[in-house]
Amino acid sequence: STPAHVISAENPYEHFLGEEENSRRTNILEKYLRSRPYAKDLVKVLGRSADPNSIWQEECWAVSGLTRSQAVEIGRLFQQRAIFELTEDTTMVISSDETVMNTSPRCSD
Q1: DSSP secondary structure letter of residue 89
Q2: Of 55, 29, 66, 22, nearest to 44 (Cα)?
Q3: Of 78, 81, 74, which Cα lies nearest the Cα of 99?
Q4: Which H/E stretch holds residue 17?
Q5: Could you give the C-alpha distances from 80 to 20, 77, 88, 96, in angstroms and in order?
Q6: DSSP 75
Q7: Does pLDDT of 1 surpass 70?
Q8: In sequence order, which residues have a C-beta less than 8 Å from that of residue 65 and are 6 or more positions away?
Q9: Whole-angstrom distance, CA of residue 24 vs CA of residue 30
Q10: Whole-number Cα distances in Å, 33 to 13, 44, 52, 89, 93
Q11: Which residues have CB under 8 Å from 58's CB, separation 6+?
Q12: C-beta separation of 97 from 16 below 8 A
């Protein structure tokens, strides 16, 4: 019943980094999350644009046990403009100032 948060460390502030640097940042984020006693059920996921014409995608970590504020703070630490919050029914895009930028129903597939 608690939300999961999806956080990336890749391409900080949309500054495109190469595959090697993005991979390094993703590994650092993993170590950071694993060091937090409240972070649970860490799963690597692939974030993609909802636009079918976009090729944007990046590796992210889905994690439960965080509050929205904790997840946003980690996103800011890794220079991300937003994180995702997943509940049973919805997907929300949360900006780095904790504003809900978008809410959409979760897919049932």
Answers
A1: S
A2: 29
A3: 81
A4: none
A5: 18, 8, 24, 7
A6: H
A7: no
A8: 2, 38, 39, 40, 41
A9: 10
A10: 20, 12, 31, 25, 20
A11: 8, 10, 11, 22, 46, 47
A12: no
Distances (CA, A) of 54 to 19, 21, 57, 102, 107: 18, 22, 9, 18, 19
Q: What is the pLDDT of residue 109?
A: 55
CA dist list (Å): 8 to 1, 72, 89, 108, 109: 23, 11, 22, 23, 23
Q: Which residues neighbour 37 within 8 Å (Cβ) at sequence distance 6 or greater?
A: none
What average pLDDT is seen over the chain? 92
Q: Given the DSSP bridges, would you call strands 82-86 and 4-8 parallel, antiparallel or unpaired? A: antiparallel
Residue that has been written with the tokens 């640097």 in this structure: 21
Tell if the pTM clears 0.85, that is, is over it: yes
